[in-house]
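ok so i was messing around last nite and threw this chain in just to see what happens. nothing serious, just curious
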Amino acid sequence: MLACPKKMARSNSARQVNNFARVKIGCIFIFDSSRTLSCRGTGTYKTLEVLGPEHEFSVVDADLNALPIVDRILKGFCGRVVNFVVQSDFTFGKELQMHVLEVKPNAPFRSPGTFEENMQKAVVSISDYLRRKHGARLLGTGMHPLLRLEETGVWPHRHRKVYQAYSKLFNLKQHGWLNIQSFQLNLPYSNEQDGVRLHNLLANICSYLPAFTASSPIFEGRLGRDVDNRLHFYRLNQREVPSVTGDVVPEYVSSFSEYHEKFIEKYSFEMAQAGADELILHKDWVNSRGVIFRFDRRALEIRVIDEQECIKSDVAISCFIRALLRGLLDENVKLPPHEVLVKDFNSVVANGLNAQTEHPGGGTARKVCQSFFGTAWKNASQEERKYLPIIKKRIDRGSLSNTIRERVERKAQKTEFKEAVVSVYSRLAESLMDNQPYF
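result:
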């Protein structure tokens, strides 16, 4: 059950909440630009030792209407508008969009089982509070299926200056900003050599992850053209300064200094030319590629994964990626040319598992993912293997995006399309509460 620490609504307690951007709470920093995978008193983690998840969920009513009330939720909980609320095991708070809550742990997880247990506890606790106080609930997946852009907005409170700085350069009133929900996974590296190797391996992997992690087939009440519509819009949301996002698939690098020069300094220079505020220049978190270094955390952050229907599915994806990387590090594999990865990624966003690919692992994205799965299974721990059958089903049967599309189309043969969407996504909201994959 959620508990507001001493209500956090008065004097010193309120000031403590407002200082979250500067104060280390537990094992993470609260503001985006300063969170870390380094725990107080324990040093940094070994390469791939822990899993650091970040989840994004829409706040919706019984009819799945998006509710842009995150500030009201946080104010009702703490007595004033704050960015984040820290509980014993997790933290929840605002995102850029007024209808989206971010949920994250107070420390990364060594154990997938602990990951599932703690984050499901967070979902249930937050959902119970939303139901009692606002008649609302949480909804996963990569995009809200019915939201129209005018029905939400950009966070207008503390730290709004970051979003205002972005709005000077980019049009934030588009789906690539206001209607995207990702599951982000942070993986630690222990030194520069490991960090660079993981970055380059993840460039290879991230081109194919959306084939089975896509969950965004519908937006604005209609079927999108692509299997992964979130990533379709994500590719375009910063086109005013293309070097910020690049090709989404990160280019290979050989050192941290090359990364800084090739990415951070390049987009910072071009953003400055476009009139960017100093607030968002020379920052690693501005990089919008599908995998980025978070140097303050000594971690790599993966951004190409759509939020899934339940925590168990997010854990399964995390286990798959970590086990796959473990195997690829041992195999010392030869990586395909970057241009091949970009071409395959674009094909995967559009066509999912059926995408034609040039990767040496197979002629389709499904075959590449099946090859990856074999490596992951061989290198998974016993605990990780408990979750991998979820991934196998997704690869064999289709992504959550495929499943949603099929079931909505089937229901729409007997009822109005919007009713079909509401019916299917209502079941997905139940899947989140029940922590059961939607097959």
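not much to say yet. DSSP finds 16 helices and twelve strands in the chain.
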